[in-house]
Specification:
- The structure is a single chain.
- The chain is mainly beta.
- It folds into 2 domains: about 15-380, 3 Solenoid (Pectate Lyase C-like), CATH 2.160.20; about 445-490, no CATH class.
- It is about 10% helix and about 25% strand.
- It has 4 helices and 35 strands.
- A hairpin with a 2-residue loop joins β2 (about 45-50) and β3.
- The relative contact order is 0.08.
- Mean pLDDT is about 85; it is low at about 5-55.
Amino acid sequence: MYHFPPTHFRLFDYNASSFLLTLAAVCIAFISPVGKTMADDSDGSRTLATSGGLSSVLFVDAGAAGGANDGSSWPDAYVKLQDALLDASSNSIVDQIWVAAGTYRPDQGDGQTPGDRSETFQLQSNLAIYGGFSGTETSLDQRDSETNLTILSGDLLGDDTPNFGSNGENSFHIVTGLGADNSAVLDGFTIRGGNADGVSPDNRGAGMSNDFGSPTVTRCNFTGNSASIGGGVANFNSSPALIACVFLANSASEGGGIANLAGSSPPMTNCIFSGNTAASGGGVFNDSGSSPIVANCTISANAASSSGGGLFSSNNSFPSVIGSIVWGNTPDQSNVNSSLFETSIIQDGLPLHGVIDADPLFVDFDGADGVVGNEDDDLRVLPGSPAIDAGDNGAIPVGVITDLDGHPRFVDDPSTPDTGAGASPLIDMGAYEFRLGDCDADGDTDLIDHSQLDACLTDPNAPLGAGCACIDLDADGDVDLRDFALFQWGFGL
């Protein structure tokens, strides 16, 4: 249920002028897609045309057997990601690597030693690595990270079993951000199967280890990693930007999802922490002057055997939790009181600084299997949730305008009073923005919701039919042409 669908174009708008503008935008997008498009170079060089000039891209596709294996195009893509990273490290023209769906292990490639647990995918400043491609795309906005699952795996022998079984030979750190700055980008990957069970520093950061480095990590899933410290991610004197990432079912003694150490204060935005376990800090662990900014995140169903099921903070660490939902963690939500938190839903939280203690009304807290903290849970919110239009517009970084689903933020729900901070439209709390007209609460407004609109549409002031409250978008007690127009606005988003 945690996924990053492709961008959708709005299919139609309410009046002719906006329709023409939308049609023009769609035509321009298809003729010259947003972002970068492949240049038709007579010399066959690998360049992308952009408004700012030329940049170079390397291509990686585990299924590109029979090609030149030189990264120059999709047909001739590198088969191993490590080979592309080696090429990029000695070629200053290269600033992007595009990686097609498949599984990539850090011990594979020229110069790597098969089975060497210390091998890692080292991020590089001024280099962006993008996953989620099928292997035919010509622009970044054509990729789909949900459909084209691109996995960075620490399971070197491919023999892992559930609950971290048979992982004794797995990578210490699948990805490393040592010394990399925020121009080092990792975007659109699933990082799983790391096992940092060695001696320091190989005891922390099984999914990703950052020492004195602060890369940018977006739309990545950290799942099934284990460590002594920081199962999913460990930061040591590092503050990577984590945007729209999911930390699911990772384990550690300290910081099942993430551990921030030695003055690490990463901004974490639109992220989910769920099903992670630890002795201290099931979801998030902060120590030694580490004070992350947790903005519009959902921290739920994590567990600690000692304390800090959701968050644990110690030794002058003071996390800022803003516009977030911290709910259903055990044995507690945080080992420090919620006076440090603002404009958030905190279970058992103190009613200070906009904090409320009210059921967020998740769509499906425990999923079809009845077990919390795994992939089939749906932590979007239902109509009537106290999270809707209740966040803080100033909490998320400038430029972050979408939620974990890739849908627009700052969408007003006319049926919900504004209770958050800022000017309307107000952002929702948590990792997801509530969708107008999403009657089946699946994260979009599609033909299923349209059928509900058809069934409920009546004359103005007619009685509201059963099951029609979700489609009364202007909250005036009926479903009429005004609601129809509002639904068109959101349809397909």
